Amino acid sequence: MLLDFFPSRQLTIYLAKMFAVRIIAVLAMLVMVLLMLDLLSRTGDILAVPGNGQDDLLTYASLRAPQLVQRFLPYSVLLATIITLAGLNQNSEVTAMKAAGLSAHQILAPLLLTALIVSAFTFVFNERVVTRATATLKAWQDVEYGQVPDDPGTRFNVYFNDGNDVLMARTLSGTGEDTVLTGVTFYERDDSDMIARQVTGSRATFAAPGWLVEDAEVFTVATTRTQMAEEPLLVAPGTTLDQVGLRRVDPDAETLGELADSIDALKAAGRRTAELEGRWWHKISGPLSAVLMPLLGAVAGFGLARSGNLFIRAVLGMALGFAYFVVENAALAMGSFGGYPPLLAAWAPFFLFFLVGETVLIRTEE
After folding, report:
1. What is the CATH number of the domain that holds 187?
2. Could you tell me how far CA 148 lies from the centroid of its own chain?
3. 255-292 burial string, b = 16+ CB within 10 Å, else e?
4. 292 near 131, Cβ under 8 Å?
5. Displacement of CA 366 from its chain's centroid (Å)
């Protein structure tokens, strides 16, 4: 019987249903409260744009809510674990199940199964919903909640290096030789890295090589004079299409496959990708954190409730769960700086706290 983790079908359904209801309730409470607080801080910026109204506030809420669900679903599983097991312990249901011959792992099995389903849902939800919502919200925030360009490939606030010189643009649209920059500023620097000339223009097109700036206004630092160019002015002749193709990657806005392609492109260009590789692995290990929560919070469900230590056990379970998230974020940060390999940074906290949870559970029960 000890090797049968689901000895009772009715008990499995009872525990899994109780646990799932509490996860949903805690998650709804957290998301609603945090979304309202976020809206209070963003409403002024959104409504400051002419033409924006209540519909835009609802749009922001619909784009922000998936991000909050992604971030706080593991916390919801942890809190639901503590609430469920503390209630079962308080009502002596854990004692009754153990008297019937069930081990701690058999009691936790329905919760772990539910958490595994939550992890699978989280992964699919992140890939199909959160990435798209994040990309859309980021594009909207880049234009300060104004009109988002129709071209989904439009990039904002881009810059390219041409030796010591720097070319900046407010937006970049199009691909290949049809690439167009708007809101262009070019800084030409001398050998001492001081700006010698500044060129601004409303629009620039790729000239293979360089960029042709239209309506160019040239400011010369040495003479402090500004003059308009009579024809399109060629700048940044050392810029290549490979530089244009590279972009700043937001791992939260890309799916697993898209992020893998971005990492390969950056590697081919000689860029450092340790942080992105760690985030790629975290897209798999992150959702699985929900499976750890019943194990880390299980300390609240075992031990005598009449001993007066139930509250202390609940706090200990919560502390173990939050410690996992602290260590996980620290490991990812160390991985981004090259302190840990990306694979180790993403997976080490998971296996470490799995062993910690198992140790605490066995010592608490036995």
Report:
1. 2.60.450.10
2. 22
3. beeebeebbebbeeeeeebbbbbbbbbbbebbbbbbbb
4. no
5. 39
Contacts of 157 (CB under 8 A, 6+ apart): 142, 168, 169, 170
From CA 292, how far away is CA 15, in angstroms rounded? 17
Listed residue (272, 198, 281) closest to 235, CA to CA:
198
Count of C-beta atoms within a 10 Å radius of residue 355:
10
Q: Is residue 250, in this structure, part of any structural domain at all?
A: no
pLDDT score at 231: 81
The tens digit of pLDDT for each residue in 158-168 reads 777 777 888 88
Percent of the chain with pLDDT over 70: 92
Residue 303 CB contacts under 8 Å (≥ 6 apart), including other chains: 89, 309, 310, 313, 364
Helix ranges (H only) for 218-309 are 241-245, 256-268, 274-285, 289-296
| Residue of 295, 300, 335 lying closest to 316 (CA atoms) | 300
Considering the domain architecture, whether residues 49 and 119 belong to the same structural domain is answered as yes
pLDDT tens digits for 53-112? 999 999 999 999 999 999 999 999 999 999 999 888 888 888 888 888 888 888 899 999
CA distance 316 to 303: 13
Range of the structural domain that residue 194 is part of: 164-237
Q: Is residue 155 a part of any domain in this protein?
A: no
- Single out the residue in 206, 237, 268 at which a domain terminates: 237
Q: Which residue has the tokens 């299980």?
A: 298
- Rounded to whole angstroms, the Cα distance separating 136 from 155 reads 12
Burial class (CB in 10 A: 0-12, 13-18, 19+), 27: buried
Task: Report the distance separating Cα 23 and Cα 121, nearest Å.
Answer: 13
The sign of the CA dihedral 113, 118, 120, 121 is positive
